[in-house]
């Protein structure tokens, strides 16, 4: 498997952080080389406004990746929630995802990331009671049927991700969605931390991994490398931490992903920039300890 990064990375050779530009169109060879030189095989490319992306802009950034020898770990972007109860907003979300599928085909991205969305106005991954209704699930399925029909024509695999706070809150619910959509281009993004939603699961992350492997293994194309622990608070608080410093069963996680997608990207994400080097070092050390090939 290949080591990837999602998000921004500090320039380790200068005293202050230097990030990938917030506007993807400003990504250049220097920014790409910085990430490549830091030991990452590829990086997630995030398109802020996919409906406004021009072919010329896409090709310009693609050339910067190529010249730096940096791979595209995954294509991501912003769009309206695919589960929205507002039909107009949901249609815009579908249009945004279709635009991303077309860009993904253009740049030959190994997968295009897709989030189901949510009803909390503060963010698509935050809690809301309507996230778990049948109407929300049905809206996601209907949206993805349209997206997948377009992605099928483009020849672009899309990788859906779930979360304990979303409509896709368990591996079984994710399996239900895949079956409801019924498209061969709908794949799965292997992110076990997202499905750790109870105290018992924190204490037994292997059970979460095994459910994912059993229900979604054959359609897995990418993984998000995170870790978690239970916070010492008087309410349940599950924290994301640097890979290798929490309770995630990384041996099972890495062995399963290597079996499912030996050429796939193992993507570090959700970390402050200053913690990225430690995360990289930990993941590399864990792969070496478990005898798992990891291309950097």
CATH topology: TIM Barrel
Q: Give the end-to-end Cα distance, rounded to a whole number of Å.
A: 9 Å
Return residue spans where pLDDT drops below 50 for at least 5 consecutive residues: 8-18
CATH architecture: Alpha-Beta Barrel
The global form is globular
- By CATH reckoning, the class would read Alpha Beta
Helix content: 40-55%
Q: Domains counted in the coordinates: how many?
A: 1
Order of helices and strands: EHEHEHEHEHEHHEEEHEH
Mean pLDDT, all residues: 94
What is the strand arrangement across the widest sheet? 3-2-1-10-7-6-5-4
What does the main sheet amount to? 8 strands, parallel
User: What is the beta-strand fraction?
Assistant: 15-25%
Name of the CATH superfamily: Divalent-metal-dependent TIM barrel enzymes
Q: Structural class of the helices, strands and pairings?
A: alpha/beta
Q: What does the radius of gyration come to?
A: 18 Å
Per DSSP E runs of 2 or more residues, the count of β-strands stands at 10
What distinguishing features does this structure have?
296 residues, alpha/beta, two-stranded antiparallel sheet, globular
Short description:
This protein has 296 residues and is α/β, with parallel strands linked by helices.
Characterize the structure shown.
This protein is of the alpha/beta class and 296 residues long. The chain has a single domain (2-290), classed as Divalent-metal-dependent TIM barrel enzymes (TIM Barrel), CATH 3.20.20.150. The protein is built from nine helices and ten strands. The protein has helices at 29-37, 55-68, 87-107, 134-154, 171-181, 199-203, 205-216, 250-260, 276-290; strands spanning 2-5, 42-47, 71-77, 112-114, 158-160, 186-190, 220-225, 227-230, 238-241, 265-268. Strands 3-2-1-10-7-6-5-4 form an eight-stranded parallel β-sheet. Strand 1 (2-5), helix 1 and strand 2 form a beta-alpha-beta unit. Helix 3 (87-107) packs parallel to helix 4 (134-154). The radius of gyration is 18 Å and the shape is globular. The protein starts with a strand and ends in a 6-residue tail after the last helix.
């Amino acid at each position: 498997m290949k080591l990837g990064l999602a998000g921004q990375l500090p320039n380790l050779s200068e005293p202050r952080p230097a990030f990938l530009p917030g506007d993807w169109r400003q990504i250049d060879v220097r920014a790409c080389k910085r990430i490549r030189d830091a030991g990452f095989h590829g990086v997630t490319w995030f398109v802020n406004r996919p409906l406004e992306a021009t072919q010329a802009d896409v090709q310009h950034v693609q050339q910067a990746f190529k010249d730096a020898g940096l791979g595209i770990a995954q294509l991501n972007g912003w769009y309206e929630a695919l589960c929205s109860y507002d039909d107009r907003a949901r249609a815009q979300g579908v249009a945004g995802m279709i635009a991303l599928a077309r860009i993904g085909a253009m740049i030959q991205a190994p997968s295009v990331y897709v989030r189901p969305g949510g009803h909390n106005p503060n963010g698509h991954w935050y809690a809301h009671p309507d996230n778990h209704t049948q109407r929300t699930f049905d809206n996601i399925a209907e949206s993805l049927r349209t997206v997948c029909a377009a992605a099928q024509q483009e020849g672009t695999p899309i990788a859906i991700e779930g979360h304990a706070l979303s409509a896709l809150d368990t591996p079984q619910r994710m399996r239900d969605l895949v079956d409801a959509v019924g498209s061969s281009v709908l794949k799965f993004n292997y992110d076990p931390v997202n499905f750790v939603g109870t105290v018992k699961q924190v204490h037994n992350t292997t059970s979460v991994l095994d459910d994912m492997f059993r229900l979604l293994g054959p359609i897995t194309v990418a993984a998000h490398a995170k870790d978690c622990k239970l916070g010492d608070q008087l309410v349940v608080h599950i924290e994301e931490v640097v890979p290798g410093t929490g309770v995630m069963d990384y041996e099972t996680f890495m062995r399963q992903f290597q079996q499912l997608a030996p050429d796939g990207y193992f993507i570090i994400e959700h970390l402050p920039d200053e913690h990225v080097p430690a995360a990289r070092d930990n993941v590399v050390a864990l792969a070496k300890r478990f005898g798992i090939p990891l291309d950097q």
